[in-house]
Each structure stands twice: as C-alpha cells, then as structure tokens.
Design goal:
277 residues; Immunoglobulin-like; 12-stranded mixed β-sheet; two-stranded antiparallel sheet; 14 strands; 33% strand
Length: 277
C-alpha cells in the first residue's frame, strides 16, 4: 500500500516501482545492455543512407553507360528510327551544352547496335537552323567538317592511354570525316588522313525539323581483337548546330570545357547481347 507524505508542506507522491523494470538488467555488463533508443534510430538512419548512396551511385554509373544491342546480321545503313533494326534499341540523349546546362530544344537521341563486324550508331537531331557547307561532297573525306553542323562519336579502346581514340563525324548532307586522335601531338587534327573504312547515311526532315545520321564503323578500326558481349569502350557523343553567331554544342557527357576533346569526361559504350538490356 502506498501513501502520500508531506515534505515542507508540499505533497510528494511516492510512486510504486516500475513493473517493466528489469531487475536483472542492473547486473548486466554495459556492452550486454540494449542500446538507447536514440542510438538505435541513428543506426537505422545510417543504414538507410548507406543503401541510398549505393542506389544513387548505381544510377549515376548507369547514366554514364551507352549500351549497344547485338544484331545477328549486318544490314544496310538505315536512318529510320522506327525500322525493325532500330526500334527498341537502347538509347541515350545528348541534351546538355559543354558546361552541363540543359538544352531541351536540341535533345538528341542516339541509339546503337553491333554485329560481329560493325558498330552502328543512329543520331536523331532536332534543329532550328541548319548550317551547311556549300558544295558538299560525300564521295571523299571533308577536312574541317567540324566547323559546320555535324554529329560526332569519339570512341577509344585504350583504357591505359585515354588520350588516344578515334573520332567519327557525319553532316546532314552525308559528308564525313574520321580521325585517329592523339592529344599528345601538337596538332591532333593531323589524324584526319587515317581511314577507318566507316560508312555514313543522312537525311533531313524539314517538316519535323530533325535531321538523322547513321554510322557503320568496322570494329577492326577500333580494336585489334573481335568484339564480344561485355566489351566496353570509352566514348562520348556530340553535336555542333547552327551558324557561328549562335553556334550550339550539344553533348552527352559534358566536357566542362570549350573543347570536346576532354577524354577524362567520356562515358562508356558497352556491347550487350540484346535490345532488352
């Protein structure tokens, strides 16, 4: 039985023992006792943050990879994105400028497929105003094509010397140029005399204001050994669009520079086994 006792004319309530108190807990060593509630909460939050950071890292890595889907046979170059060859193929988007600012009006879709012999790439390029070279010639290589409207692929198989890679360009008028890039040379454009044997196709849809470009690049120009599923290449994708007074650069992985030639900023192109990857 419990009572109230008067202390200095104030009523003090004497409470019964807490029935939930564990008498044996006082005999436990400190490391054997359950951690305080706030410590348990902190541990749970730390675990959640760890899992979230892993998810963010995986998503970031995924956005840095351009997947190319395997095709069993080679085909003629096709610039129709809804054709059987291209439909459902993995895509990435060049949608930022060289400094990473979004450029939604120029969001460029790029798809890729590969066979045992060739790498195929398709660009769909929205435009406002085309800047085209007068008197174009698709019969031979066009030096300086990068000064006009072009779609470009930079790609390299050397992960030890990333300053060596190949550059492929195509214009809306089916002009082309390929370069063997060595950034350690005083002038890396001397590599334009190299010939990869790649093929191009292009067409302009003036009603939709989109131009399309296709590339078929022999793997023999990229690597000494035949391609297999899981092979990766260092790569980046670019567009130059419009006349000099309002020139636009549209890129996949922002180089954070006035030049596209920043291999440290490249992503990866990965060869996968089918279109569902």
């Amino acid at each position: 039985m419990f009572s109230n006792k008067s202390v200095a004319n104030k009523e003090v309530e004497v409470l019964p023992p807490n029935p939930s108190h564990c008498k044996d807990c006082d005999d436990l060593e400190p490391h054997e006792r359950a951690p305080p509630r706030d410590l348990r909460v902190k541990r749970i939050l730390a675990s959640c943050l760890f899992l979230l950071s892993g998810t963010i890292h995986a998503a970031t890595a995924d956005r840095s990879t351009f997947r190319s889907a395997f095709a069993s046979v080679d085909v003629g170059l096709d610039t129709d994105p809804v054709s059987a060859f291209w439909q459902g193929a993995p895509a990435v988007y060049a949608e930022v400028d060289s400094w990473g600012h979004m450029m939604p009006a120029y969001r460029t879709e790029i798809r890729s497929r590969w066979t045992k012999s060739n790498l195929y790439v398709l660009f769909a390029c929205p435009y406002e105003e085309l800047y085209l070279k007068p008197s174009p010639s698709a019969a031979e290589e066009t030096y300086g094509l990068w000064n006009w409207d072009v779609a470009e692929l930079f790609i390299g198989s050397d992960f030890h010397n990333i300053r060596r890679y190949k550059e492929f360009e195509v214009s809306p008028q089916r002009e082309w140029v390929d370069l063997d890039i060595n950034l350690d040379l005083p002038d890396h454009t001397v590599g334009w005399t190299w010939n990869s044997g790649f093929q191009v196709a292009a067409r302009i849809d003036p009603k939709a204001k989109i131009w399309y470009a296709g590339m078929r690049i022999p793997f023999s120009a990229l690597n000494a050994r035949p391609p297999i599923v899981g092979d990766t290449f260092r790569a980046n994708l670019f567009r130059s669009q419009g006349p000099p007074d309002h020139r636009r650069s549209i890129v996949w992985k922002a180089p954070m520079s006035d030049t596209f030639h920043v291999p440290e900023q490249f992503g990866l192109l990965e060869l996968v086994d089918d279109k569902s990857k």
